[in-house]
Amino acid sequence: MISIVIGVVVVAALAFFMSRSGSETATPEPSEAKAEPPVRQVETPKAEPKAKEALTLIMSPKEAQAAASDAMASSEPTVVPEGQTEKPTSATELQAEPENEPQTEQEPQVETPTATKAELPAGGSAVLALLDVSGENLSSPNRAALSAASQLAEARGVPLHICCLGADTQSAAHAGLEGATVHSISDESLADGLSETYTAAALSALAAIPADAIVGAASTIGKGFLPRLAEALGCGMVSEILSVESADTFTRALWAGSTIATVKGEGRLVISVRATGFDPAQTSEASPQSISFQAPPSKLRFVERQVTSSARPDLSEASVVVSGGRGTKGDFAPIEELADALAAGMGASRAACDAGWVPNDLQVGQTGKVVAPNLYFAIGISGAIQHIAGMKGSKTIVAINKDADAPIFGVADYGLVADLFDACPELAQKVASQGLKPTA
Ligand SMILES: Cc1cc2nc3c(=O)[nH]c(=O)nc-3n(C[C@H](O)[C@H](O)[C@H](O)COP(=O)(O)OP(=O)(O)OC[C@H]3O[C@@H](n4cnc5c(N)ncnc54)[C@H](O)[C@@H]3O)c2cc1C
C-alpha cells in the first residue's frame, strides 16, 4: 500500500520537475491552489483617523479580537511532551560592551550613529529601495523588495531609486530596473552587519536621494536597520508587507498568517517586504552611482560571527526543501537522505530545533525562516499554525505523517500516511532511480 502511494508521490514529483524544466526561473510564487486566509477589504473608516497617527489598521479592536479568537480556534493544540517547554529561539551575534569593564584605551565618543532630527534628510517625491547586498548576486528577498518598491513607485507615479548597501556591492551592477536609477554605498564598516552602521548608511543614502517611501527586504539585516531608520526619521513603519494595494495601503500577516490585515500609512514611510509576497524582480545591467559614506563611531563592537556551512542549498533560496519534525525522534538520517536525493535544502520544526537535534537556523515558521520553495516536504511534522506560517507560500506541499488526522494534511497538496522511517528511504531510492533533480 505504502509503495502505491509513494509511487503516486514520485509520479507527482516527476510531473512537477518535468513541468519546471525549461522554465527560466526557480522563483517561488505564492500558492494559488491553496485556500488563502481571510483578507480584509480595504474600507475607508467612517470616523476620521487621528491626524498624528501614521498607520491605520483597518480593523476595529472588536473585529481584531474576534479574528484572534477565530485564529486560536482554528489552530491545532500544540503537543509538547510532559516536562518540555517551548523556549524562544534567538541567535545573538552582537554583544554590547559591558558597562563596568575596565577601559584600557580611549573609547570613542558616545554618539547616536544617526543624525539629529534637525539634520535629517528631507522627504521627497520618490521611492527609495535600500538593498543590503553582499557579493555578485542579488538575493531573492532583495529581488522581492525591488518588485514591491517598483509597484509602489508606479502606484504613486514617482521615480524609483535603488541603493545597494554593503561591504561588497558588486551586485549593484545587475540591480537595474526600467526607469530606475541605481546607486551604491560600499564601505568596509558594513561587513559586520551592525544595524547602527546600516542605519547611518541609509541616512546618507536619503541625504543624496530625498524619498518619502523607503523600501527594504525583511532579511536579517533589514529587520535590524529598517525599524531604526523609521525611528531616526520619526516616521511610520509598515513591517513585512505581502502586497501593495495602492499608493498608501498595504497588506501584512497577523497571528501567524491566519489573518491578513490591510494597513494604511500616512506621510513618510519605511516599509519592509516579506519575500514570499512578491515575485522576485528580473533585473538588468546598471551603472551604479556611488554615494559617499563615513561610518560614525558606535558603542557597539562586532565580536564574532559563527557561520554554519553546509553543502546543501541555503534554506531561504532552495527550490526544494525537506523538513523534519518531532516525528523523527531525533534521527534525521531519513530526512537527510531524501534531501540529498532531491538536492534540496533541509529544514525543521521548532520542536526538532529546540530538542537540539538540528541547528536553530534550520527552523521554519513564525519564529524561524519563512520559505516559499517550489516543493516543500513536511515529514513527521504535525502542522502547528506557527510552522505553517513559515511554509504555506510553498508552491507544492507534500506531507508524510503516520497520523491521518494530522493538521498538516489540511495544507498539503499531496499526503502520505506512513511511517517516515519506511517512506523516506523508499522515496529517496525511487527519486534517485528516476534521476530526478530540481531544475533550479
Ligand atoms: C510563539 C510560538 C512560536 C512558534 N514558532 C514556531 C516556528 O517558527 N516553527 C515551528 O515549527 N514551530 C513553532 N512553534 C511551535 C509549534 O507550536 C509546535 O510546537 C511545533 O511546530 C511542533 O513541531 P512538530 O510538528 O515537529 O512536533 P509535534 O507537534 O509533536 O508533531 C510530530 C508529528 O510527527 C508525527 N509522527 C510521529 N512519529 C512519526 C513517524 N514515525 N512517521 C511519521 N510521522 C510521525 C506525529 O503524528 C505528529 O503529527 C511556536 C510556538 C509558539 C508558542
Question: Would you mind describing this structure in some detail?
Answer:
- There is one protein chain.
- This protein is α/β, with parallel strands linked by helices.
- The protein has 2 domains: about 1-20 and about 305-435, TPP-binding domain (Rossmann fold); about 115-295, Rossmann fold (3-Layer(aba) Sandwich).
- It has 9 helices and 17 strands.
- The protein has helices spanning about 1-20, 60-75, 140-155, 195-210, 220-235, 335-340, 350-355, 385-390, 420-435; strands at about 55, 95, 125-130, 160-165, 180-185, 215, 235-245, 250-255, 260-265, 270-275, 290, 300, 320-325, 345-350, 375-380, 395-400, 415.
- The strands form 3 sheets. The chain has a 10-stranded mixed beta sheet with strand order 1-9-8-7-10-6-3-4-5-11, sandwiched between helices.
- A hairpin with a 4-residue loop joins strand 8 and strand 9 (about 260-265).
- Helix 1 crosses helix 9 (about 420-435) and helix 6 (about 335-340) packs parallel to helix 9 (about 420-435).
- The longest helix is centred in the N-terminal third of the chain and has 19 residues, at about 1-20.
- The two termini are about 30 Å apart.
- Bound molecules: flavin-adenine dinucleotide.
- Flavin-adenine dinucleotide (FAD) binds near residues 366 and 382.
